[in-house]
What we know:
Blueprint: H1 10-56, E1 59-62, E2 67-72, E3 75-80, E4 83-86, E5 93-98, E6 104-108, H2 125-129, E7 130-132, E8 138-149, H3 152-158, H4 162-179, H5 183-189, H6 191-208, E9 213-224, H7 230-299, H8 301-316, E10 324-326, E11 336-338, H9 339-346
Antiparallel strand pairs: 1-4, 2-3, 2-5, 6-8, 7-8, 8-9, 10-11
Helix pairs in contact: 4-6, 7-8
Amino acid sequence: MSSPPDNNNPWQHGSRDGAQTLSAVKLNKRYLLHRLKNFRNPFIIFLGLATLLGFWSAYYTVPSDSVAVIQRFGKYLETVPSGLHFKIPLGIDTVTILPVKRQLKQEFGFSTPGSTDPYQSPVDGLRETEMVTGDLNAALVEWVVQYRISDPLQFLFQVREPRAILRYVSESVMREVVGDRTVDEVITIGRQEIESEALIRMQALSTKYSMGISIDQVQLKNINPPGPVQASFNEVNQAQQEKEKLINEARRDYNKVIPLAEGEKDQRIREADGYYIKRINEANGDAARFNALLAEYLKAPAVTRRRIYLETLQDVLPGIQNKIIVDDQIPGILPLLNLSTYQKSITP
C-alpha cells in the first residue's frame, strides 16, 4: 500500500526535475549529432585532400647530374645529392635543384631553337654583337660561353641572378678584348688569342664576384664586318687568302727543292773529299814505292832493271790478245813464237 505523496519531501520534487533535465540533454545530443553528421563529410574530404597533397609534396627526386639545396623557412639547411629524398611539405621546406655536373652555355648574337634556359639566348642579339676594334673599325662578333655551377651556395645566395650577371660580364670582357686588337686580328689570325684571354678574364671576374660559376670555354663563332662593307671586306679577305696560298705553295716548292739540292751538294762534297784522300794516298804510296825501288836500284842496277822489266811485262801481257815474240838470236826460217796459239792449246 503506497503512501500518499509528501509535498514537503525535497527528493521527490528533484526526481521529477532530473527526469525532465535528462530528457532535454538527450534531445540536445540528438540535435548536435544530426548537425555534426551533416557537417562531417565535407570536413573529412578536405582533411583527406590536404593529407594527400602534403604527402605528394613531401618527396622529391634529384637527377643524377644535379644536387638539391634545402631551405627551411628561407634559411639554408643542407645540400643533398642525387636520388629520392623527403622534406617537410606545405612550404616549410623549399628545394632548389641545380645541375652542377651539366655543362651550361650562353649564346651571344644568335640563339639555338628549343633552348629552355631563359638566360641562354640573347634578348637583343644585334646590340650584343656590335663592337668597335682597336683601329676604330666595326665588327659583328658572335660567341658562346660554356660554364658549370661550381659552388651551389654562392650561386644561390651570394649574388642575385648570377646567370644574368654572367651575361653582363661576358659582354663587357669581350668588348674589352676586341677593343685591344685590329679588325684583321679579330676576323682572321687573332681568334684563338681572343678566346684564351676572354676566358681568363671572365673566370677572374666570376671568382671576384663569388658567383659560384666556373668558365669552361669561350668560343668565337661568326665574326663579320657590318653589312654595308661586307662585299669589300670579302674581296680583301679573298685576296689575303690567295696571298697566303701562293706563299704556302712557294714554301712547299722551297722545302721540296732546297733539301734535295742540299743533299746533292753534300754528296758531291763527300765524293770530292773521298777522291782527294784517295789521290793523296795513291800519290804517297807511289812516292814511297818509287823511293824503295830507287834504293834497291842503287844497290843492284842490273838486277833491279831486269826485275822492273819482268814485272812490267807481267802486268802488260795479260791484256794483249795476240802476242808474238821475235828473237833475232834464234837461227831458223821464222824466228818468232806465237804465244796466242800456244796459250789456246794449253788452255783446257
